[in-house]
Amino acid sequence: MGTSKPHPHNQTADFNYDEALAAFSAPQSSVDGVAVGKVIGDNAPHEVGQQEQWQYDKEHFKLVSPLNRAKFRILIVGTGLAGGAAAAALGELGYDVKVFTYHDSPRRAHSIAAQGGVNSSRSKKLDNDSTYNHTKDTVKGGDYRCRENDCWRLAMESGKVIDHMNAIGAPFSREYGGTLATRSFGGVQVSRTYYTRGQTGQQLQLATTSALYRQIGAGNVEIFTHSDVQDIIVEDGVCKGIVTRNIITGELSTHTGHATVLATGGYGNVYHMSTLAKNSNASAIMRAYEQGAYMASPSFVQFHPTGLPVNSDWQSKTILMSESLRNDGRIWTPAQKDDQRDPMTIPEDERDYFLERRYPAFGNLVPRDIASRANAQQINGGYGVGPKKNSVYLDLTHAIEKLGEDTIRERYSNLIQMYEEAIGDDAYKTPMRIAPTCHYTMGGLWTDFHEMTSIPGLFCAGESSWMYHGANRLGANSLLSSSVEGWFTLPFTVPNYLAPLLGQEAPDAESQAAKDALKRTEDRIEKILNIRGPNPHGAEYYHRQLGEILYRCCGVARSVEDMQQGIDEIRKVRADFWENVFVPGGKDEMNQQLENAIRVADYLDLGELMCVDALDRDESCGAHYREDHLDEDGEAERNDDEWCFVSAWEPGDKPETFIRHSEPLYFDRIPLMTRNYK
């Protein structure tokens, strides 16, 4: 893995992408039921370097005349930053846009919960930041399991995101002189994170929703609230629309369009307890997966290092404390095991600031995967604190002494108030207690460089897509990637797809493909409602079992034995679910038990695929930390010779079988090297 000679996945002057794809051979799988599929490409213009590919594409994309745009109907599912921005932008361009949300209002999308900030390399500070540094940090942070060209686009468009969101009303925090304020997040050594105190997602979401409402009011966008996607309409291999269910009335509807965008968020709730809102789910992407859209790297899951510790076995979710706290907070545990003294009475020389000790160059601002592993290792090693000994300390007292309590209140007051309401402690006077918790999913539907899935006409954006983040997302790149996709990518790539379709009528909602999708939905609902097994349980019972299995077998650290056991246990739980799950009520009414049962059924299939993907990928990389692939320092050890590719999964012909397609990853200006944050 050294750089003494060119690695086959590092581009040289005579590199030819098509020849590299033809020569690539993916490894066979050690997992029963997994077949190796085909080698796929990213659909980027490789006649130019990766840094230039997005600009080249924009200059060569096909265009749709303003007079013809209203002839094209675009369906957008989700109203968070990616979906809401795409709907607003495409609506303003003049397309016939229909946007769907299962909420009562688009502003309730989960983007509103993001706290810490949004990255951009437009910084005016003299800290040597640049588009190159932003790209390099993102590729390195993702442990070289993301596309370099995607990361160039992310960094190149980042300045536009800040300027645009500022222009449409996002109240970014400012320095005393009026310039936009920035701070640092994990995995970087510059200050490129723009923020609105601890409510950045909220303010970006509200600004985006205002822009969306403007287009709704102008008649350019039609919104369907309380609409939950149940299936994808695919005709002759092309996406033609969706089937939705009104969660208030139970009514099923088919909607057709020339293009469909899924921006439905992440699937972290597969773990039962995560930082996601309880209604965040994976059903839309699982319906797409069942219809032929590849699922990329589903085992790449981020565990946030600064979640609040679980206080009860019957807790329904976990709570996030923003990564921004690591700017001023120091993370530590007592140096002695089982030391349960009041933290304020423990002397400095009896504390272990373990991140600062192990990673002196980055200290408390190492990437999330590294911080979470270190936290978990301290807890599992007997150094955990709190009533359940399941947390470590995040201490703001040093910053308060240095900067003053007023400054810390100005930066973090809403977060500290949230902490006090949840835990009962005053973080101004005693250290916070934090623990790793499921937070973000880097995996998702595979998409090419133009954000289109393996089903033509079906695009995917935001956390429901796999793009940009590789095996580990850098903090504050999530709000950025969703904004880049919604405002500055899909408004180019979707019209490029639509332009050759000019003259075609909108797909027919009464077509056989639409009827088939509607019938699949009806059959799925009837099947769940009619289960009357001998040992009935609600869907929540199975969801909790699944979450416990995944935390144990596909969590922060993973072993071959645990992953295989996880697959076996999930299959047993799934069999029990389909025999015994009990759903009261009917289909033609508001029925949250039915909604939950459908989602848990999808989680069981997805959880199995996650464990299969984790067991199949015979290396450690980023958040995929396998105990059988570690270097001499106990850090994740990649296998670039065999596994420098994206796994893109498709269901096999029989139950419990899978096809793993491969997209090789090649690096141009950001060559492969071992991650080092020490």
UniProtKB/TrEMBL annotation:
GO terms for biological process: anaerobic respiration. GO terms for molecular function: electron transfer activity; flavin adenine dinucleotide binding; steroid dehydrogenase activity, acting on the CH-CH group of donors; succinate dehydrogenase activity. Residues 74-479 form the FAD-dependent oxidoreductase 2 FAD-binding domain. Keywords: Flavoprotein, Oxidoreductase. Residues 543-677 form the Fumarate reductase/succinate dehydrogenase flavoprotein-like C-terminal domain. The active site is at 368 (proton acceptor). It comes from the Bacteria. GO terms for cellular component: plasma membrane. InterPro entries: FAD-dep_OxRdtase_2_FAD-bd, FAD/NAD-bd_sf, Fum_R/Succ_DH_flav-like_C_sf, Fum_Rdtase/Succ_DH_flav-like_C, SdhA/FrdA/AprA, Succ_DH/Fum_Rdt_flav_su, Succ_DH/fumarate_Rdtase_cat_sf. It holds the Pfam family FAD_binding_2. NCBIfam families: PRK07573.1 (NF005749), sdhA_Bsu (TIGR01811). This is Fumarate reductase/succinate dehydrogenase flavoprotein subunit. It comes from Candidatus Corynebacterium faecigallinarum.
